[in-house]
């Protein structure tokens, strides 16, 4: 058993012992033997308590809450309600599978339940969110993740690393009973708060998690007071992934709590250097130890992307994966009131709407039985992701044309090999000489793509202005077809051919800049790969004019280009 596996199991012990204090654990791991071993360890820690409640990522929001039982209501002639998953999970463990795919409404409902269940230990829900995401942008919704104290990553562990039992059910019981018996010194609380501020962490939940984790570690070792090593280890369990250093660990932020007390030296920061420290548990010394310990954070506690990273769109709209509401196909969404001929009738939802009114309708009429009115009808509504249409705009001019075309071909083939299940499309525009050419119309066929772009040649002038016109015309056409266009430029940004076909570098550059600032009004998402030998301000300026994400990748291969594009369009 490795140290990383021991830490992962320790997070499970603390999360199970006091879910009212810790909320639970985010577990980033793909399906496989390592995740199965960790889940089995959780089962061993539960001992004789109730088995976990398994919640799939596709669970509808209505299933979480107390709802009307149509069948029993019709049978009994009165409203009869059935409990929801959140109500059933009180005092138990809820394992959320594929938590990175949770709908926002479901994640919010679970987060609210966590806040409410902190009032009493017996009613608290321990949420274990299994994050199966492979890309950095696929993470547990932030509102839910920040309420779970422990973030664990098992992807780097191998099966031979997880053999052996880490902890036992009695360890969970010991922590649950004695966690508040361990006293925490004021200096330790000050050090925790100062470390959080040094890492740019502003949430009050985080230092509270650290304090309770230190108490839990002391209770696990049967100590009646929290030791400095408990504080350091607790911060190693909680802080990684939640913030980054914003200042030198030896310096104190302006609003640090311990500045209210007179410093022992003339150091303005209020934090003494090790050689001038007069206290064994001084806030500055402990803070420095905590920050230093962060550098050796285990692989199982890797950083998770922030909300800003997940939602970064480089200031443009049109992110792939945008959802639209439809009444014909897609992922089921909440039904809405409707009428015959306008969508498929949701029989169950219609009966739910009619059930509470049956007694009133039967009393008002002479005939008994089920009475359905037009106002009761509900139609099925679906949510589906828009198709993405990735448009490559490749510079086929100059001496480096063959290299750029090889990159583009490799990226197109890799994207097409992965986009069939998502039903996305890929197209390619090349430009050289005096015009731009649509070499590959929007397609999902890998065979067709290979056939049409296999013999692409390059060389000659750079009609960049003409390429911009062709690219944005195609993007608008794709948008009119209900797809989400995404532009990928592979060029050095140095046009030398005008729209009129004249070889004038200065006029061409002015024309390109003017076109880019005009076409950006459509706000298409884009990425600009600068293929210059060295970073060129002209390429960066054109990228800014286009509103595109800038990437300097002069030696990129097709795999690198396709990976960046997949991350930007949210491919899985």
Explain the overall architecture:
The protein is α/β, with parallel strands linked by helices and 572 residues long. The protein is built from 22 helices and 16 strands. It has helices spanning 3-17, 19-22, 33-46, 61-64, 70-76, 85-88, 104-117, 142-145, 169-178, 186-198, 205-220, 228-238, 283-294, 307-311, 347-354, 358-364, 401-418, 446-453, 464-480, 505-519, 537-546, 558-569, and strands spanning 24-28, 53-55, 67-68, 81-82, 93-96, 126-131, 150-153, 323-326, 331-337, 378-385, 388-395, 425-432, 435-443, 484-491, 525-530, 549-552. Strands 13-12-11-14-15-16 form a six-stranded mixed β-sheet, sandwiched between helices. Strands 2-5-6-1-7 form a five-stranded parallel β-sheet. α9 (169-178) packs across α11.
Topology:
Layout: H1 3-17, H2 19-22, E1 24-28, H3 33-46, E2 53-55, H4 61-64, E3 67-68, H5 70-76, E4 81-82, H6 85-88, E5 93-96, H7 104-117, E6 126-131, H8 142-145, E7 150-153, H9 169-178, H10 186-198, H11 205-220, H12 228-238, H13 283-294, H14 307-311, E8 323-326, E9 331-337, H15 347-354, H16 358-364, E10 378-385, E11 388-395, H17 401-418, E12 425-432, E13 435-443, H18 446-453, H19 464-480, E14 484-491, H20 505-519, E15 525-530, H21 537-546, E16 549-552, H22 558-569
Parallel strand pairs: 1-6, 1-7, 2-5, 5-6, 11-12, 11-14, 14-15, 15-16
Antiparallel strand pairs: 3-4, 8-10, 9-10, 12-13
Helix pairs in contact: 1-3, 1-9, 9-11, 10-11, 10-13, 11-12, 12-13, 17-18, 17-22, 19-20
